Amino acid sequence: AILINETTRKMFGFKNPEQAVDQFLFYDNEKVKIIGVVKDYNQLYLKQAVSPVCFCTDFTAIDNTPIEYFSVKLNSDDFQASLTFMKNKFSEIFPNARFDYLVLEDFFNRQYVNEQKLGSMLWLFAGLTIFVACLGIWGLTAYSARQRTKEIGVRKVIGATIISIVWLLSKNSVKWILVSVLVSWPIAYLAMEKWLQNFAYRIDMSWWMFVLAGGIALLIALLTVSWQAIRAATANPVESLRYE
Fold first, then answer.
1. Same domain, residue pair 117 and 235
2. Are residues 100 and 210 in the same domain?
3. Do 174 and 101 lie in a common domain?
């Protein structure tokens, strides 16, 4: 008797689990009965789709069947004692076979080591990129403020508000930041789409993800620009106009 997963059921054309139960399949010239259908679950890399799987309830019932591994769920908290017990039993049943084992959690984690390393590298480079970009924006704003020191002083004397002066110094930077965000959206979308094509199971990209990322980038840039612009806007206009 065997259990099959949903993928196997669909592959053989059974419309529902009830229709598959009590049917017979032939495996290596052996007639085996389907006694149940289990839901699909992925125990391999998510880049791979769930494969058709049959679970044999009695491996001795099927002659010459290659067995790659046994899945065991432990009820005991003493892992070493359970491992020793399984090793001894395995040696009794298969005296000429080598006993190897792996822990399912470790098996899962090893499959995504490359993705975890890639994620860490992306975080690092993203942080460095933001830092360098902020330094550049800060420098440009400081340079612009210094070049327009006397203009700012005159505007303050004739009644310009701090907000208007901050906007005067910031608007050019904000314009180019918005342009860069708009240009980056399709590039980021195409890059993510290309990477996600490697996975059989993947997330759906929504528009709000790009809006959120662009909003965060714009906010960081605005904070950098505004800090320097506010310093220039709140400076004493007398100092700016003293030598005029």
1. yes
2. no
3. no
What is the spatial distance between Cα 47 and Cα 144, in angstroms, rounded to a whole number? 50
14-32 pLDDT, tens digit per residue, is 999 999 999 888 877 778 8
For 95-107, the pLDDT digits (tens) are 888 888 888 888 8
Torsional sign, CA 186, 188, 192, 195: positive
24-27: strand order across its sheet: 24-27, 30-38, 2-5, 54-56
Among 122, 120, 71, 69, residue whose Cα is nearest residue 97? 69
Residue 204 DSSP label: P
Q: Which residues span the domain enclosing 54?
A: 2-68
Express each pLDDT in 119-139 by its tens digit: 899 899 988 988 898 888 888
Report the C-alpha gap between 33 and 67 in whole angstroms.
19
Q: How many CB atoms lie within 10 A of CB 127?
A: 10
Q: How confident is residue 64, by pLDDT bands cut at 50, 70 and 90?
A: low
